[in-house]
Amino acid sequence: MAEHGFFQYLRLKLIVSLFRFMTFRRRLAGIEKDLAISDNPDRKLVQIPSRDTGRFIEAWLYSPPGSNTSPQAKKPVLINWHGSGFIFSNLSTDVAFCSRITRDTGALVLDADYRKGPEVPFPGAFHDVEDTLKWVASQPEHFDLQRVGVSGFSAGGTLALIAASSLRKQFVPLEISLVIAVYPGTDLAVDPATKTVPNPIRPIPAWAAAIFNDCYVPDVSLRTDPRVSPAFADPASFPATVAMITCEGDIFAPEGIKLAEKLVDGQRKVININIKGVRHGFNHAAEPGTNDWEQREYLHKVSIETVKEAFSL
């Protein structure tokens, strides 16, 4: 594991602690709001064993309404990872997405946590993704292992793309046939100061993006590793369905679009959508009647249709 130097860690820890303090109440308010309007209360907390003795990875398992009282055949599952900048503890911020997917497709959704920097830099989050996939693969009585998908938002979208490429064939008979990546970063090797879009909308400041990268991958030489930056993964390693959903106002949109374009091979289904008039993270705590709300509904619709088609639901 690439560790931080003492003074580098101290500096990053102080900055990140301030970031976390400033966003804590807003994050909780967003989760509570989305839980209140969600049609699906059928979720339970799962403790996933990790490779470290005595440590577990927390995850919320979402089930279709009524399925807990009326057991049916094992179901396909979509594994989701939340956004975080690789520093924020944002588990449950995707409750609206997870609820809609399971309600409207009948599939299970496993919304999984992962460790953050600077306390645990790479490969901490990567190992937690790996351990989550291993646990799913060990549960054939609960999950249809031939119908497994991965999804994620922002840093979680990065991890989903990594799961769908570098880790996709590691846990046979688990078969990842689908990835939905929403405004992910795909290339951490590029200087954030050079990342721009024609119509930025409340863009992540380059200095903040640089801090996120330093917290997660202090060793710059590792940032071209496909386990860090999925832009460097072998295109042939990605699954049959790839949905890349980016935002017009997001500085990370061009690299997501570029990766999606690279994956078009005439065999794989690639959905490459750039949502207009929205920023990075637009879907969290969106207000009814706003463009963010309308585009969040569109995001959910596209994701539901993609899951249904990939899983033959």
From TrEMBL:
Q: Which residues form the Alpha/beta hydrolase fold-3 domain?
A: 79-282
Which InterPro entries does the protein's record reference? Answer: AB_hydrolase_3 (IPR013094), AB_hydrolase_fold (IPR029058), Carboxylest/Gibb_receptor (IPR050466)
Q: Name one GO molecular function term.
A: hydrolase activity
What is the protein's given name?
Alpha/beta hydrolase fold-3 domain-containing protein
Q: Please give the organism.
A: Cylindrodendrum hubeiense
